[in-house]
């Protein structure tokens, strides 16, 4: 069940963290995600269970945060989802108590900084980067480079979310990292953000060269060098992805 909830960003994490040797087994048929139409799917992936559990744990704590912050229909939605999510969370947390603890710790810090109106990009994105590192440790990845790549990727995702939400947050008077740091989306702001993104992606690419290739290395490298770059360029140009269209590939 948890594997059905994994989004594009977390699939990237699963591909990066995979320690499998050789090509994975690809099957063609019906599966839990597509019970009526036959599709190609990977039968087994060593890192997917960790990433799926991490997704459930993260979503649970986000729901708890929404219950405390939201009002009206958003709060009602969070209350309904909490009922559905609770057994999934308890199961995932029982399998991975350390990851559950670290996730709660860093999301609580992230929420605290939001409420304080934190204007530091490093402090805000660092919270999510360390959450990603905790996921890598849970996957028993014995490679500092992989943990660092995932750390930087989660920082980029956090920044991308802030860019994507900038206009909506500004109109609603909500906290937004970009607004808190820069005030407005001027040309100078965009140039500084572009420089930050370029530096982060260059570091990811450097780290990628230190890794022993796995079955997904070409896809991961494509995401790091082309997909994520296109997403960030679009966001800096004012094109929004929307919550349902988030992908880095």
Describe, in short, the structure shown.
This protein has 249 residues and is mostly helical.
Please supply descriptive tags for the structure shown above.
two-stranded antiparallel sheet, 249 residues, 2 strands, Farnesyl Diphosphate Synthase, disordered N terminus, mainly alpha, globular, 68% helix, 9 helices, single chain
State the separation between the terminal residues, measured CA to CA. 24 Å
Q: How large a portion of the residues is in β-strands, by DSSP E? A: under 5%
User: What are the secondary-structure elements, in order, as H or E?
Assistant: HEEHHHHHHHH
Radius of gyration (CA) equals 18 Å
The biggest sheet amounts to: 2 strands, antiparallel
CATH architectural name:
Orthogonal Bundle
Q: Uncertain spans, ≥5 residues at pLDDT below 50?
A: 1-5, 243-249
CATH topology label: Farnesyl Diphosphate Synthase
Residue share in helix: 55-70%
Tell me the structural class: mainly alpha
How many strand segments?
Answer: 2
SS element count, helices? 9
Strand neighbour order, sheet with most strands = 1-2
CA-based shape: globular
Name of the top-level CATH class = Mainly Alpha
Total number of domains: 1
Mean pLDDT: 86
Question: What this model shows, in words?
Answer:
68% of the residues lie in helices and 3% in strands. With 249 residues, the protein is mainly alpha-helical. It has a single domain, classed as Farnesyl Diphosphate Synthase (Orthogonal Bundle). It has a two-stranded antiparallel ribbon. Helix 2 packs parallel to helix 4 (97-115) and helix 3 packs antiparallel against helix 4. The longest helix has 29 residues, at 144-172. The model is unreliable at 1-5 and 243-249 (pLDDT under 50).
